[in-house]
Amino acid sequence: MNVRLKRTNSRDNDFASLVKLLDADLAARDGTEHDFYAAFNIIDKIPHVILLYADEKPVSCGAMKELETGVMEIKRMYTLPASRGNSFASRVLLALEKWAAEIGYKSSVLETGKRQPEAIALYQKSGYQSIPNYGQYAGVENSVCFGKTLN
Predict the structure, then answer these.
(1) DSSP 35-64
(2) Strand, coil or helix: what is 146?
(3) Which of 47, 66, 73, 148 has its CA 20 to 30 A from that of 9?
(4) CA-to-CA distance for 22 and 11, rounded, in angstroms?
(5) How far is the C-alpha of 128 from the C-alpha of 90, rounded, in Å?
(6) Which residues pair with residue 134 across a beta bridge?
(7) Mind listing the pLDDT tens digit for each residue in 53-99?
(8) Contacts 24+ apart (CB under 8 A), 68-71
(9) CB 18 within 8 A of CB 58
């Protein structure tokens, strides 16, 4: 299998296609809470997106945007169900972290849902530590937030 990573932005059509599938998956998991989360996942102006292609097919993605000076927030992580189990999400996450460090960010944070155990496992395996829910996620029962210092 030929695998490659691509740095792009949120205007990329392959990213938009994967995000539509991600949103459908999250809507099924989150039910009525999905509209709350959707308000914070607008992708029209995200400057840093990683796409992973397997045999030239886009199968995994992730994005990041500045949360505050020195802190990058990881967003829109997704891997097609048929492509899971190949460490693609780990590769995307590592590429985002590397890119963030290259452009001067010292740490990254992210939010995921308690109904996404595979995402929680990925972040814990990747060295993320549980942090208090931040910003709009403070006090949200279904949200769990993580942070990591970048090298």
Answers:
(1) HHHHTT---TT--EEEEEEETTEEEEEEEE
(2) strand
(3) 148
(4) 16
(5) 12
(6) none
(7) 999 999 999 999 999 999 999 999 999 999 999 999 999 999 999 99
(8) 70/104, 70/105, 70/106, 70/107, 71/105, 71/106, 71/107, 71/108, 71/109
(9) yes
